[in-house]
Amino acid sequence: MIELGWLVPFFPLLGFLIIGFCGRFLKGKTAGYIASITLICSFLLSLSIFCIQQSGSFVSKTISLAEWISIGKFKIAIELLIDPLSVIMMLIVTGIGLLIHIYSIGYMHEDERFNTFFAQMNLFSFSMLLLVMGANYLLMFIGWEGVGFCSYLLIGFWFKNTEYNIAAKKAFIMNRIGDLGFLLGIILIFFAFGSLSYSTVFAQTVGITPGNHIIVWITILLTIGALGKSAQIPLYTWLPDAMAGPTPVSAFIHAATMVTAGIYMIVRSNALFVLAPFTLSVIMIIGIATAIIAATIGLMQNDIKKILAYSTISQLGYMFMALGIGAFTSSMFHLTTHAFFKALLFLCAGSVIHALHGAQDIRGMGGLKNKIPVTYFTFLMATYAISGIPPFSGFFSKDEILTKAFEYSPVLYSFALIGALLTCFYMFRLLFLVFHGKFRGIEEQLISIHESPRIMTIPLLILSFLAIFGGLLNIPALLGNSSMGNYLNNVFISHKSINLNSITPATEYTLMAVSFLLLLLVIYIAYLSYIENKTVPAGDEILRKGMKKLIYNKYYIDEIYNKIFVKPYEWLSVKLHDIFDIKIFDNLVNGTGNTTLRFGNLLKLIQNGSISFYLFIMVIGLIAILIFNLI
Fold first, then answer.
1. CB under 8 Å to 359, separation ≥6 — which residues?
2. Residue 543, CB half-sphere, CA atoms under 13 Å: how many?
């Protein structure tokens, strides 16, 4: 069975090829069913591999498919690595991806490019699976670029809308910045270790002293790649704009594929990162800053999808913070639970948008609780989970990160707790404004509001189950057994583990109680504001001042980037165009043409039709030939 692991990425690739080449012959929802079946096959095979792994038959295995590149010492094989870390990611990509594919059959059924959508979604799945299953950095990079390309296609899927095209280009270009850093890091890894294979590279780290300058540069370059893919400061501004794509695409990007790639890459490269304390400190600072800044922006957003987008950026910030303090298992655990409740939140948002015929502004919603009860129930479960309410999945994973942050520094814990409380507030703000109170939209919307079809609500119910009980995957050692920690133990380089200050069980219980009580207080404040006082966010035309204006305008980061990078680039492009294109190349091309034309005009003078002139020229020619021969 393990030797068939290569079929996990092959199935979605096969689906892409079938739908891509035969799409014009596929009628109705056939393409959606084909795409979903390929994910079913991949998920079942991944689950089988996980079960075999749990039985103790193997821990880690490399599947060699073919030799790819062999140039001197540079040898790269097409190899897939199946170990606990890759298996977790395989289950997330195929499992969450499968539910999103099924949901999409209902959501996209009226779209004229239905078949193209599922072909691209299958290609997206294949690229992510290649990224997480590749046994060397070059294969990871191929998958890395593949998910970037697919995100460009899917974010700009409705390409007839110019704004959506701009959003797709923004995502693609900003990720190229990070990808350049990642590529340079890979090149430096080869020069430092003579190989790109994980096993060879990591084995050579045993004798290296922490703080080695080559390792520091490698990890910094890899981190730049991770910041782009996982939307962290300063490369995060593409992710909110990526909401231009269909909502299932948003769910796929945020929960199971693209934004998790940076987290996975750092966890996979833990043997390098534990040797670079400086880089880990940078990651930790960026992570906590991103978590808080994105959370504050989420407080004043009014687009249902953009609120969730900033929520994703904030939650990824928590994962980065955990990576920065060496809590790799905690980061992966939160990545897993986040995949459950964030996919659910986005698909619920899609169900709301579907019910309101495309409306996304929460100021025009309200009172949907009884109109779309399944969507409301599942959204409520996801809100509890992301807010960290016990015993939902987010409580276990976020509490574990908060505990690790306290072990690292009480100051870091305080900032992390503030971010968690902000998350709770804006999520309940979203819940109350969308589902409670009176409907604030137009009458035509109210009459036609209806629950989504079963093909959309069944995935919601399955994801809500995972959002509720997903925390059981890694119950804290204080309460039971850290099962995910034990499962991933062999992935991490134990001889270089980062030691945090241990805390007593009483302290940990106190931290849990404090965070829970503060969360209840925040929920009550949100209830008073949006249910009791019936507060509705002000319109865009209302003048805001001070911090409200700053946060509402997202700290003007896009405007700053526009002034610092975009405008100078455009100015330089115009100047270079004037100098090189117009003054040099145009003059060169036009000058060549004009010279040829003038020479032609000169030559045509001899074609005058006079026989005596022709005889005269002939005589002159003969005399010239005789003189030439005499000389």
1. 353, 365, 441, 445
2. 0
Cα separation of 236 and 282, whole Å? 16
Q: What mean pLDDT is reported for the chain?
A: 90
Question: Residues 99, 462: contact at Cβ < 8 Å?
Answer: yes
Q: So what's the pLDDT on residue 527?
A: 96
* Cβ(405)–Cβ(504) below 8 Å: no
Handedness of CA 434, 435, 440, 444 (dihedral sign): positive
Indicate the DSSP class of residue 361.
B
Residue indicated by tokens 């977790």? 88
Q: At what angle do helices 247-255 and 328-355 cross, to 10 degrees?
A: 170
Return the pLDDT at 601. Answer: 79
User: Which residues sit opposite 66 in a β-bridge?
Assistant: 78
Residue type, 462: I
Distance between CA 449 and CA 368 in Å, rounded? 8
Q: Of 140, 439, 485, give the one whose Cα is nearest residue 330.
A: 485
Q: Count CA atoms closer than 13 A to 245's CA, side-chain side.
A: 29
Q: How high is the pLDDT of residue 296?
A: 96
Taking the C-alpha atoms of residue 148 and residue 171, their distance in angstroms, rounded to an integer, is 8
The residue written with tokens 């699976």 in the block is: 129
Q: Are 208 and 201 in contact (CB under 8 A)?
A: no
- pLDDT, residue 499, reads 62
The DSSP string of 547-616 is HHHHHHTGGGHHHHHIIIIIHHHHHHHHHHIIIIIIIIIIHHHHHHHHHHHHHHHHHGGG-S--HHHHHH
Cis peptide upstream of residue 234 (ω within 30 degrees of 0): yes
Q: How many residues does the chain have?
A: 631
Tell which residue, 469, 464, 493, 314, has the closest CA to residue 401: 314
* Parts of the chain with a pLDDT under 70: 477-482, 493-501, 605
Q: What is the 3 state secondary structure string of 439-465? A: CCCCHHHHHHCCCCCHHHHHHHHHHHH
Please check whether residue 215 is in contact with residue 208, taking contact to mean a CB–CB distance below 8 angstroms: yes
Is 248:242 a contact under the CB 8 Å cutoff?
no
Q: Which residue has 């020479």 as its token pair?
A: 599
User: What's the DSSP call for residue 233?
Assistant: T
Q: How far apart are CA 92 and CA 43, in angstroms?
A: 9
* Per-residue confidence (pLDDT) for residue 86, from 0 to 100: 94
- Residue 467's closest CA among 379, 401, 392? 392
* Closest to 511 (Cα-Cα) out of 405, 419, 428: 405
List the structure tokens of 582: 């117009």
CB 75 within 8 A of CB 66: no
Contact, 362 vs 305, CB < 8 A?
A: no
Contact 484, 332 (CB under 8 A): yes
Token duo for residue 150: 């697919």
Look at residue 495 in the predicted model and tell me its pLDDT. 42
Cα separation values, 291 from 228, 311, 392, Å: 15, 9, 21
Residue type, 587: N
pTM: 0.89
Tokens of 251: 């769910």
SS (HEC) of 130-170: HHHHECEHHHHHHHHHHHHHHHHHHHCCCCCCHHHHHHHHH
